[in-house]
Amino acid sequence: MADLIQPRTLKGFRDYPPELMIPRERLLEQARRVYRSYGFAPIDTPALEYTEILLGKGGEESDKIIYRFKDHGDRDVALRFDLTVPFARFAAMYVPKMGTPFKRYHLGPVWRGENTGQGRYREFWQCDFDTIGTTSNAADIEVVLVIHDLMHALEVERFTIHVNNRLVLNGVLEELGLAGKTKAVLIALDKLPKLGRDVVSAEMSEKAALSPEQAEKLLNLAQTQGTNSEILERLTLDFGGNAKAAEGIRRLKELLEATATAGVDPSIVKLDVAIARGLDYYTGTIYETFLADLPGIGSVCSGGRYDNLARQFTKQELPGVGASLGLDRLLTALEELKLLQSAGTPAPVLVLQFSADKLGEYQKMARGLRAAGVGVEVYPEAKKIGAQLQYAEKRGHRFALIAGPDEFAQGVWKIKDLAKREEKTVMDSQVKEQLRALLS
Amino acid sequence: MADLIQPRTLKGFRDYPPELMIPRERLLEQARRVYRSYGFAPIDTPALEYTEILLGKGGEESDKIIYRFKDHGDRDVALRFDLTVPFARFAAMYVPKMGTPFKRYHLGPVWRGENTGQGRYREFWQCDFDTIGTTSNAADIEVVLVIHDLMHALEVERFTIHVNNRLVLNGVLEELGLAGKTKAVLIALDKLPKLGRDVVSAEMSEKAALSPEQAEKLLNLAQTQGTNSEILERLTLDFGGNAKAAEGIRRLKELLEATATAGVDPSIVKLDVAIARGLDYYTGTIYETFLADLPGIGSVCSGGRYDNLARQFTKQELPGVGASLGLDRLLTALEELKLLQSAGTPAPVLVLQFSADKLGEYQKMARGLRAAGVGVEVYPEAKKIGAQLQYAEKRGHRFALIAGPDEFAQGVWKIKDLAKREEKTVMDSQVKEQLRALLS
Q: Hey, of A10, A97, A432, which one would you mutate to test binding to chain B, going by the most B CBs within 10 A of its CB?
């Protein structure tokens, strides 16, 4: 016999045994269901692309972490590191034929050869949805509704969707003649909560040559506090004179009004001028989603509006707006909030095999239950009943169905509640109804 | 502006636009639902593995087609070329803790750098389900039930599941002292339908040194015809004296009886001694599934029983049985059989945007319908109604909902059937009920 090969996975990669995969599949399914209910259509793209398609689209950092190699035909190929760049390529190829607006979602793994640790993996899933080909605020408003429905579908009750609009900051910078200094300003503003106004004002003066008045205006913007109405009023008063800022304020106001009319509890949507999400990519509405019971975990669904998706691949301008569900972060959160039912099996019922010659009968009962929507496993061997019950407990089945010669003679089945360790005997014809009641 | 990069995919790889992805997702969802209903639990494993894990497990052919490269840490890594080898590694690592029997399904992409053409792609999905850790025939019998339910879930009515058992052939070869000549014998037998008994008999004599009597026995086995009962009778008469063959016959008989008792139409399960599925891997029951209306497309769901899944990785013996759904082949078949409803959108209803200031109202109506399980898209711009209706037709929406100032004043909506080009006006409160009736 040849030597055994040590079974192991690569660093930064992981297996998903059933206990991890069952909640994962449930979450992906809910995301698909909600995205589809809004008319977002699924697409998929290859894991491998020509390297030139992927390079330089996510900045130097992305280029370094790309898994890149020569394929059998000596092509320079690479594994996708996100779903946005493949979508840009896809859009350039298909939108001319499909037309706009185009709404798509894309769920799939991406690969990044970066340092691991702090819950970072080299293979992880992204769950993006976007509407491209329109600048209409209707698409921005819908993003809030989608996130809202997604959280509800996952039975997360306490969450807030923070919204902002980059047009406000951009307008103010433009008005102050600082349009080219966005990056330095954002880096300084980012330190405000920790270091306070004076230090940040000094840094703005030093690093970006801002006057005290310019710094004052920006600090006022960043520190706007209050209810949504109060913030809107404050922003209008301070910056409404600039056309860009005014447009940003108008869009935010319309978003808050339309989501409320549509039926979303207004306390869930929070105007938050402090969120910016990255430096260069987003140009309009910005979204972050926080769990009230786990704010420290960060945003579980984030996104924003951008001016042009596919400028590297086509001359057609494709403005769009979208967001991405943080699958792994959300799973961690749901686990901490005890909103995950973890089991080793997707089937709540195990039919025990008492008499091997009755296998057809066991499967007949199981088939009837499956047709009624109840997942049922049949134990494959006529082992001792105790061993079969142990298996059921280990896997996480909730009920066992038992019938031996006596039961078959009487036309009855025993239903055993595995958590309560109680059993009752019911007529053959009643099993389906009883189990459905017990499971609901 | 920098030069544009030509948007394109690699040879052998493809994008899935909505028209292809919607039916694909539906099929994957049905597969998950059916697998789960039997207690098969989902797992996932990384796309990338240490090359030594994958090498040599699928024969020399597999080794040549593996996508293999050095990662950032100079590790020799490769993309998985099937889901079986990763499952073997997974089982070696987890089964000691999880115990047996272990039932898993795994849906995911695999990569093979082989010649393209004839519908062959370098990236494609596999959809495997297996029960490991038991030799019980109950697991073999269940495979038939799973395939049966899967076909029904996909609304394929006319199909047959062909079953055989390699023990019968192995037993006969053993009895004839030809156990080491399985390969040569199978290669020759494979030519029987085309070249006839005499030629095959001659080849058996020439290539494998079989006597005319030995060849006669094997040819009789391969040409056994008749109803399931007749074939069983014939096999028992001819080969029942050999212990292995007798066990194979017993298991086939039990499988036919138990599936019938469980409620599967017996005419769907066909004993077929001509199927062997590869030379070395399978050791017991073998399955192939043919569509009565498209036999030429080949088997759409195939599998079998094997002796030991993970011998390269562990000393623990893991016998098992399973099958794999041919996703792409089945999609092609369903398309030919017109069982695929193809559309560019998963939402059957489009709410037109007549008045931009009523966006909240449009989304309010849409949210009510979504909560009732109806997919509803809201058009993002207040374009001309004609243009919005054109969009609906292009995407494949079935109904449009329209309300302007007059309708809002009266508390009514227009429902337009886009295929029939008919519209009717209904009360606000009746829209949900009416649409559900129209869609069902």
A: A10
Q: Give the whole-angstrom CA distance, residue B352 versus residue B227.
A: 60
Q: Over its length of 440 residues, how does chain B's per-residue pLDDT go in tens digits?
A: 568 999 999 999 999 999 999 999 999 999 999 999 999 999 999 999 999 999 866 667 777 899 999 998 999 999 999 999 999 999 999 999 999 999 999 999 999 998 887 778 999 999 999 999 999 999 999 999 999 999 999 989 899 999 999 999 899 889 888 888 888 888 888 888 888 899 999 999 998 889 999 999 889 888 888 999 999 999 999 999 999 999 999 999 999 999 999 999 999 999 999 887 665 679 999 999 999 999 889 999 999 999 999 999 999 999 999 999 999 989 989 888 888 877 899 999 999 999 999 999 999 999 999 999 999 999 999 999 999 999 999 999 999 999 999 999 999 999 999 999 999 999 999 999 999 999 98
Number of other residues whose CB lies within 10 A of the CB of residue B366: 26
Is B272 contained in some domain?
no
Tokens, residue A209: 């040559």
CATH code for position A110: 3.30.930.10
- Residues A96 and A216 occupy one common structural domain: yes
Last residue within a domain, chosen from A308, A336, A364: A336
Facing A43 at nearest CB: one of B16, B131, B310: B16
ipTM score here? 0.93
Residue A344 contacts B where some CB pair is shorter than 8 Å: yes
Which CATH number do you get for residue B369?
Answer: 3.40.50.800
Phi-psi region of B25 (alpha: psi -120 to 50; beta: other; left: phi over 0): alpha
| A372 and A305, same domain (yes or no) | no
A276 within domain boundaries: yes
Given an 8 Å threshold on Cβ–Cβ distance, is A10 in contact with B50? yes
| Tens-digit pLDDT profile for residues A355-391 | 999 999 999 999 999 999 999 999 999 999 999 999 9
Q: What is the dihedral of CA A110, A111, A114, A119, to 10 degrees?
A: 50
- Does A84 fall in a domain? yes
Kindly state whether residues B143 and B173 are assigned to the same domain: no
Report the C-alpha gap between B175 and B179 in whole angstroms. 8
Size of chain A, expressed as the number of residues it contains: 440
Query: Does A142 touch chain B if contact means CB atoms closer than 8 Å?
Result: yes
Show which of B265, B281, B305 is a domain's final residue.
Answer: B265
Q: Are residue B28 and residue B141 in the same domain, yes or no?
A: yes
A298 and A178 belong to one structural domain: yes
A145: domain range? Answer: 18-336
Question: B307 and B377: one domain?
Answer: no
Overall number of domains in chain A: 2
Mutate to test the interface with B, among A381, A388, A432 (most CBs of B within 10 A): A381
Would A11 be classed as within a structural domain?
A: no
Contact A113, A4 (CB under 8 A): no
Same domain, A143 and A59: yes
Cis, peptide link before residue A101, omega less than 30° from 0: yes
CB atoms within 10 A of CB B298: 14
**Residues 63-82, chain B, touching A (beta carbon < 8 A):** 65, 67, 69-73, 75, 77, 79
Q: Are residues B234 and B131 in the same domain?
A: no
